[in-house]
Design brief:
The complex is a heterodimer.
Chain A (H helix, E strand, L loop, with lengths): L1 H6 L2 E7 L7 E7 L4 E6 L2 E6 L4 E2 L8 E4 L5 E4 L2 H10 L6 H7 L1 H33 L3 H7 L2 H8 L2 E2 L4 H15 L9 E6 L7 E4 L3 E5 H6 L3 H16 L2 H20 L6 H34 L4 H15 L15 H4 L5
Parallel strand pairs in A: 9-11
Antiparallel strand pairs in A: 1-2, 1-7, 2-3, 3-4, 5-6, 6-7, 8-9, 10-11
Chain B lengths: L19 E7 L3 H17 L5 H14 L1 E3 L2 E5 L3 H24 L7 H22 L1 E3 L2 E5 L3 H17 L5 H14 L1 E3 L2 E5 L3 H33 L7 H31 L2 E3 L2 E5 L3 H17 L5 H14 L1 E5 L18 H4 L11
Antiparallel strand pairs in B: 1-2, 1-10, 2-3, 3-4, 4-5, 5-6, 6-7, 7-8, 8-9, 9-10
Classes of the chains: A alpha+beta, B alpha+beta.
Bound molecules: zinc ion.
Zinc ion (ZN) binds next to helix 9 and helix 11 of chain A.
Chain lengths: ~350, ~350
């Protein structure tokens, strides 16, 4: 029955011989035994459909039939060509069917979003950890190199603590790293930081910086040691390197999705920075866990960490709209420490 | 079977001598491209990237096929497998390089010279691949640039521009465009690109003046904003957000002026036989389009990007015309068209980078 219907089918188009850009109005008429007639002006050619190459259908764009001896036929009648292919037992292809269905497009969209979210939450952190394991420890030190010099010029000033107190704190730091066999090139730095306020941070490779303001906030040296253990945790878990690798992963993902929209290159640079905040929360939790395990091992009360964290939260809370909000990328204080008041 | 005896083609239209402007028509739509884009994306993810070669062919066939001149659409002929092999070679080469650096860090030292020597070759191959895979009315485009030309234009002139602190940058650009465009061909007809260095200096001079003007204007707007809200509000989120937005818009405006000017300078001076191309993009127009595209993409969390792409192409093509003198059917195929089958040329999709304008 379909043979009768498509028998009468006439496909209008243009024939090009491939030697000149001059086209000739032509029509393709299906006839029997896997053959078609190509009719042009005053001549007619019989074509074996098994010897030609029919281009895949993509949306509305013209279809082309390439003849084995050179030259091609071009037409906008996509449905006509589809019918012809079916008649000659050729499959029009699955992808072109996908592209024509809104149902498929929308379920693809859902699947892509799902895969992207899964990859973002589990894939990238896992991958970056694996890659970090492969990279040598010297890579961390390379990352941290020069960072302190930059900060010293802008945000940090030499410590105003007495030489005696500085020596004391250095001893405390040495106690914390005593059992860290071989990992990192440990270095302890004290700085006055009027803008940043009470804080401590670790650079990849092993440099730990603590501000005078944090020292002033502490009521017991053990409190400071718990924070130092937290920073050592960042170094040991190689958070700096992993953060860089995760940033690369997010950028690669953004490129894969929006790569063909070139005007977006600025956007794909910004998005990773925004998404990074989520990862750094996980890393803070990891460093907290490291610190608490260390306290347990050393027989230091867990409340030392809680006390300092709560005091820190209170002191930063009074200026919470500040640009340098310590807790911007950190987990909520209620989650990290038990505050008594 | 073959079809010969093509002497009896329709009579060619009587030769038209007066130049006439022919528009590029674009029939693509965002809703069509959205479906192609999302299916491409899903299949690429499912196949761990392997499908990306097929995705690229479908994407380019869609955009080429949606663009027509004098009623005939362009087409793209690359075989996905060739693109896949090119990509595998690239990834393999990169992995090899990383591995070599691990084994002996001294090997890293030869990377820069290797890049300097290899880059012109990659540019030449990518350009040739892209043009040979593009056709219109049954004739392929082509590229006749050689390695020496690419090395001079891309490496020597780039080094000269760098070491003169950018004074020779317009010359570098002129050499680059002359290499890329002047070596292009349609069928057997070589394209012509003959623009004096003077014009490039004029373009850059004007561009720098305009960019400075835009930046000064942005600074004045920001200054006024801070003055009206009081200097104490500087740190507050709404004010600093507005300041950032002003500079983002200014940056896009500068980018639009640059891109539009460069495209006009490139395509607007291209000739193919008796015909020439006219490009009339406007900087602020392009900037407005880039801005609205970026905003809509952010608002829709990226969903708008297929529509954004279609809008951008449609806008660019609407400002491009062929000023035809005589019949566009007079072009003939290149005698050496068959050597495009050579293996080296089929596999040229290195880095998936179009070294375009
Ligand atoms: Zn931390």
């Amino acid at each position: 029955m379909s043979i009768l219907a498509s028998d009468a089918r006439v496909i209008d188009g243009t024939y090009f011989d491939g030697r000149s850009a001059r086209g000739v109005a032509a029509r393709l008429v299906a006839c029997a035994n896997g053959r078609c007639d190509l009719q042009m002006d005053d001549q007619q050619r019989c074509i074996d459909m098994a010897s030609v190459k029919v281009s895949a259908r993509i949306a509305h764009i013209p279809r082309r039939i390439d003849f084995s001896g050179g030259g091609h036929f071009e037409t906008l009648d996509n449905d006509g060509i589809d019918a012809l292919q079916i008649q000659h037992a050729q499959h029009p292809g699955l992808v072109q069917w996908f592209e024509r269905q809104w149902k498929v497009a929308l379920s693809s969209l859902l699947s892509v979003v799902l895969v992207a979210v899964l990859f973002f939450t589990f894939g990238i952190p896992w991958l970056s950890q694996r890659v970090a394991q492969v990279l040598p420890v010297s890579a961390d030190a390379h990352l941290g190199k020069g960072v302190l010099e930059i900060l010293d010029g802008r945000l940090l000033k030499p410590s105003t603590l007495s030489a005696e107190r500085q020596y004391q704190l250095q001893q405390r730091f040495d106690e914390v790293i005593r059992n860290q066999r071989g990992a990192g090139n440990w270095q302890f730095e004290l700085r006055d930081a009027p803008i940043v306020g009470a804080n401590a941070f670790a650079l990849p490779g092993g440099t730990v910086v603590m501000t005078d303001q944090l020292v002033a906030l502490a009521q017991h040296d053990e409190e400071l040691m718990t924070v130092l253990a937290h920073e050592v945790g960042h170094v040991r878990r190689r958070h700096g390197l992993r953060q860089l690798l995760q940033g690369l992963g997010v950028s690669a993902m953004a490129m894969a999705v929006f790569g063909d929209v070139t005007s977006l290159s600025t956007l794909t640079g910004v998005a990773p920075a925004l998404l990074q905040a989520g990862y750094s929360r996980d890393m803070e939790r990891e460093a907290d866990t490291y610190s608490r395990a260390w306290m347990q091992q050393q027989g230091i009360a867990q409340r030392r960490f809680d006390d300092l964290m709560c005091r820190l939260a209170a002191s930063h809370g009074s200026q919470s709209d500040s640009k340098y909000n310590y807790f911007a990328s950190h987990p909520a204080i209620s989650e990290r420490a038990r505050c008594t008041q | 079977m073959s079809i010969d005896n093509t002497d009896s083609v329709f009579d060619a239209p009587a030769p038209v001598t007066a130049p006439r402007a022919l528009p590029f028509e674009f029939r693509g739509s965002g809703s069509e491209y959205f479906r192609i884009w999302i299916v491409n994306l899903l299949l690429t993810i499912v196949t761990v990237g392997i499908y990306s070669a097929w995705a690229k062919v479908r994407r380019l066939r869609y955009f080429h096929g949606s663009t027509s001149l004098e009623g005939h659409a362009f087409d793209y002929h690359a075989e996905p497998v060739a693109i896949l092999i090119g990509r595998l070679i690239t990834v393999g080469g990169y992995a090899l390089f990383l591995l070599a650096g691990q084994i002996n860090p001294l090997l890293n030292l030869i990377v820069v010279p290797l890049l300097l020597v290899g880059l012109p070759w990659v540019i030449l191959r990518s350009r040739r691949f892209h043009l040979r895979m593009t056709s219109w009315r049954g004739l392929r485009f082509g590229f006749h640039g050689d390695y020496k030309g690419a090395f001079k234009a891309y490496i020597l002139w780039w080094l000269a521009a760098t070491f003169t602190a950018g004074i020779l940058f317009p010359v570098f650009l002129q050499r680059r465009l002359t290499y890329l465009l002047g070596n292009s061909a349609y069928g057997s007809q070589r394209a012509g690109y003959d623009v004096a260095i003077k014009q490039f200096y004029a373009f850059y001079g004007w561009f720098i003046l305009k960019a400075l003007g835009v930046l000064i204007l942005a600074a004045v707007v920001c200054g006024a904003l801070v003055a009206t809200t009081g200097s104490g509000a500087m740190g507050s989120a709404p004010v600093s957000g507005t300041l950032a937005a002003v500079f983002f818009v200014a940056g896009l405006l500068v980018a639009g002026i640059y891109q539009a000017g460069q495209l006009n300078l490139a395509f607007g001076n291209l000739t193919i036989g008796p015909h020439r191309i006219e490009s009339t993009l406007s900087g602020p127009g392009l900037a407005a389009l880039l801005l609205t595209n970026a905003l809509l993409i952010v608002i829709t969390l990226g969903l708008y990007s297929p529509w954004a792409k279609v809008r951008l192409i449609r806008y660019q093509l609407a400002h491009l015309h062929v000023i035809a003198t005589g019949d566009l059917g007079d072009f003939t195929a290149s005698a050496t068209a068959d050597d495009s089958k050579a293996l080296g040329d089929e596999i040229s999709d290195f880095f998936d980078v179009d070294f375009g304008i």
